[in-house]
Amino acid sequence: MRTLGLGLLWGVLAALASVPLWLKPPEPGVLAIAQAQRLENGAWQPVALPQARRPASRWEHYRATLPLDEAGARYLFIPTVSQRVVVELAGQQIADTELRTTMIGLASGTTALVPLPAWLLQAGDNVIDIHLQSMSLVPGYLSPLYIGSADELVPYYRSRVFLLEYLRLVVPAGQLLLALVVLVLWLYRPQEALFGWLTLLLVTSMFIYLGMMRNLLPFLAELMPYLYMLGSMASIILVITVLLVAGIAPPRWLKLAAAGVPAGCVLLGLADILPTSGLVMFVNAPLNMAGLLVSLVIIGWAALIKRIGEAWLLLFPLLLALLSAVHDYAVVTARLDGPVLLSVYYRPALMIGIAMILMRRLGISLNRLDDVNAYLTQRLTEQERELARLHQEERREAAWRTLNDERQRLTADLHDGLSGHLASIIALSERENSVQVERAAREALDDLRLVIHSLDIRDREFPAALAGLRERLERQLRRMGVSLHWSMARLPEIAGVTPSHALNVLRIVQEAVTNALKHGRATHIRVQGGQDDEGNACIQVENDGIPFPRQPDRAGNGLNNMRRRIRQLNGSIEIEPLASGTRLTLRLPLQLPESTPG
Fold it and tell me: In the 8-state DSSP scheme, what is residue 292?
């Protein structure tokens, strides 16, 4: 797996190394202009295109002749130019790359596709003037010109725009994102010195990209030499980084040099002791190449001699970075043709290597975390065995406290319910009314059975409690000639049921049925369980009696008791009158509270 990842990395790097090969000229069928004239000392001199190694930071003026058999719209394609070009046709300006929305910048060349207005073209020779401005340290360059239709030239133009402009903008954006990721890692693990130096490396190496912001921030053009000087500290930081990868503590003087050398160059430039261009060309640029060379030697030694796996991830990227730096230095010093600086394309290779090192270290940290987790799991198992005895004692004590609480609640329920019925029996007995005495005695007996039956209810045995209530209600309603429809098949399972919980729910349902008979004079009662849209369990008691008033004059003791009991269950009650009858909806959470107040 590790070999596959390394091969994949080197495949990506090889693709990046072939970027210059993607810049192909148009097909031979397109009209190419390879001869032009250049204005020198006030006179036009014939020259051949491309024109390369022209002095930087100045204007160059070229004139080309376009022969046409017939007038008509055409397009002028300039594949590569550095860095600004103004095009005139028949003495009238028709294009200026400075006015483009894309930030061209100072780091490399650009491309241009200029429509030639048909009303300015004529059959025969047409004169095209091209004014070329090269800025910063990059020499002037003008490629051959191509004339054709949009269908012939647009594909080549778009590929150049992608490679020379959009891809250059993607690189700093990706590097900035990577710098933020490494910064976060460093903030969370400040003891990892590698993360801190990687953050500084990613940030300082981005100074050169600020040249791309020249169109947005014009004052950067004057500051670019100083930004190049400050950016050279990245080469020294790179040496410190590879030393850490190789397991070598960087010396103190090297850390001081990372800030001291660039700062000294900036001070020399600001004091006009040495020209800034000379400092960049003969101090900072060689320092960058020297830093890459030293880093390559160290990382090669770490990979080949010390057999450090992370070193292999940086070996090829450093080699590409060194070769591109040498190429760019040769271009800037006019020893090679071409305005395209390769460092901006090959720098992502180094960023990819750094990202893979971070991912590798993250993977190692996760593996160590898994090992520690396994060790802690084993220790936790041992502690659980040790605490099992104490836990059993705690459970017995908790059970005793729960039983004591339930006894107190039972006493209160017997006092509130049964005592009232017994008082009625005593009063009726004094009047010698045997029918009413029997009815009151039966009600007292049913109430007592309800309380006693609830004491046997355990968690997740709530359906059994409801089934017992149904059995008692059916006998009672059958004697009164009232039909009962009972369905609890769709009632979801309710957890955390205690005897107190069960008794509260049974009393609420019982009270709803009693009210339907006593106040609603119902002949049919329907009790159905289910689940509402919010996931709560609900029990509906619906009757065909007199509708419950929407705004009753006052709430009776029965309704108040129901509301008190439902609050203890963290539920709710809703009573709504129907066209014929009343519906009471009891909503309960699927997990009842651990205890209810007495």
Answer: H
Domain ranges of the chain: 8-15+175-359, 30-162, 417-454, 459-598
Name the β-bridge partners of 553: none
Mean pLDDT of 377-384: 87
Question: How far, in Å, CA of 490 to CA of 533, rounded?
Answer: 13
* Residues in the chain, overall count: 598
Number of H helices, E strands in the chain: 16, 17
> pLDDT tens for residues 119-153?
888 888 899 999 998 876 778 888 899 998 888 88
Stretch among 83-92, 249-258, 292-301, 589-598 having the lowest mean pLDDT: 589-598
Contact 494, 588 (CB under 8 A): yes
| Distance (Å, whole) CA 18 – CA 342 | 11
Higher pLDDT, 42 or 499: 42
Run of H or E including 51: strand 51-54
Separation of alpha carbons 83 and 444, rounded Å: 102
Q: Is the dihedral of CA 214, 219, 220, 223 positive or negative?
A: positive
Count CA atoms within 13 Å of residue 398 on its CB side: 8
What distance in Å separates the CA atoms of residue 131 and residue 261, rounded to the nearest whole number?
A: 39
- The residue among 231, 229, 227, 251 whose CA lies nearest residue 240 is 251
Confidence of residue 52 (pLDDT cuts 50, 70, 90): confident
Query: Taking the domain 30-162, which CATH number applies?
Result: 2.60.120.260
Residues 6+ apart with CB under 8 A from 472: 446, 449, 450
Please report the pLDDT score of residue 517 as a whole number. 84
Angle at 390 between CA 386 and CA 392, to 5 degrees: 110
Residue 582 contacts by C-beta under 8 Å, 6 or more apart in sequence? 516, 520, 542, 543, 545, 546, 547, 548, 575, 576
* Torsion on CA atoms 68, 73, 78, 84, rounded to nearest 10: 120
Helix residue ranges, H only, 417-498: 418-431, 434-454, 462-480
Four-point Cα dihedral 50, 51, 52, 56, nearest 10? -140
412-427 in b/e form (b: 16+ CB < 10 A) is ebeeebbeebeebbee
Q: Reduce the DSSP state of residue 467 to 3 states and report it.
A: helix
Contact between 265 and 229 under an 8 Å Cβ cutoff? The reply is yes
Phi, then psi, of 51 in degrees rounded to 5? -105, 115
The answer to whether the CB of 294 falls within 8 A of the CB of 243 is: no
Contact by Cβ (8 Å): 133, 59: yes
CATH classification (class only), 459-598: alpha beta
Nearest to 36 by CA among 73, 87, 72: 87
Contact predicate 469/451, CB 8 Å: no
Cβ distance 592 to 502 under 8 Å?
A: no
Q: What is the residue-averaged pLDDT of the chain?
A: 80
